[in-house]
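tl;dr need the bound structure. longer version: we got a ligand (pyridoxal-5'-phosphate) that a collaborator sent over and nobodys looked at where it sits. i said id run it. heres the input, straight from their email, havent touched it
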Amino acid sequence: MFNPRLTETLTDFPFARLNALLAPIAPPSHLAMINMSVGEPQGAMPAFARQIVMDEVDGWNRYPPNQGLPELNLAICEWLTRRYRLPKDLLDPNLHVHPTAGSKEGVYVIATIATPQEKGGGKPVVALPNPFYQAYLGGAVLSGGEPLLVNANAENGFLPEFDKIDEATWKRMSVVYLCSPANPQGAIASMDYLQKLLRLCRQYDAVLALDECYAEIYTGQPPAGGLEAALAMDETGGKDPFRNLAVFHSLSKRSNAAGLRSGFMAGDPKLVAMMLRWRTYGGPQIPFAVQKASAALWREETHPVETRAWYAKNFRVAEQILHNRFSYYTPGGGFFLWLDVGDGEEATRKLWREAHLKVLPGAYACRETNGVNTAHRYIRVALVHDEKTTREGMTRLAAVL
Ligand SMILES: Cc1ncc(COP(=O)(O)O)c(C=O)c1O
């Protein structure tokens, strides 16, 4: 009755495992719960965007267009052009971008779009970093591909070494996922890393699916992006600079708008066209109100500065309280702490039992390779709260572990 890809492989979603782990443990009732397990921004979405959604009182009887309103696609192209210093008018709103219901939908669907029945004489391979955002595995498995987990740990600067994959496997590769800045470790892929990986993908006609949903949350320089990396190595005179590349963005983190469910895919026009086809058959259109609010958010550049300041404050608090315990480092991007606590599951239980603090064992965002879960020593802590709550959470964590 069921699709075995769903029932046999996609069985241990991290938050379900976390709830099961903590269910038998009674937390201290005198302390209010602080949930730092989920990467859900707790800041407010800008008021102007809320107002646009509220003002959209008409049009709910109509189907919104699948391909995005012209004003949204244009706002996205203009934002990409500003953010990545692309030449004016290089991006065509009808060809290079496609709105999605958050970046999650895009990264989930791209593997199905880009994975054939067979490749290189065998089952196609979909490579993903390990640990990873779960939608990559969902996409890989449901596409019919064979997931290949490529470890990203402290030894390789938390960036997967896809270039070490053997040639026979590369020949079967359909999609390579990369997240930069990375969830959970916050590592940022350099321009050079991105170009080398894109070159490899092109050599074997695989798609580079680059998740850039944390691109606006950074502590130093703005992270390099796939589009600018591709353009800087373009040999087609601007005719086809983004071939084999799809990047994914989101308003969830940039604009504290996770509930809006608004993101987009950009890049290779052939992939964009197939994303439109996929969504025309079965994807959810994005409501008019959401599209209009999204266009306004992509056009506005002051609120992301405030968003960054919010996280910068939180990292300062964490750094102050944790010092260099747990191999503390302030990540280049994203809003997670990736702490080496020795035994991530045990630390998670202890923090719940003694501090009413909820974090995620690193191992739950990672799968075993060769019998080892390389993230078992870690916990992931989402610094998404206001400064006061962050301070309270860090103080409890430092006291208990
Ligand atoms: C790495 C990564 N990619 C994608 C997403 C999806 O976010 P959204 O669909 O809200 O854009 C998340 C959400 O936490 C994430 O951490």
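gonna send this back to them w/ a short note. Residues 363 and 376 are 5 Å apart (CA to CA).
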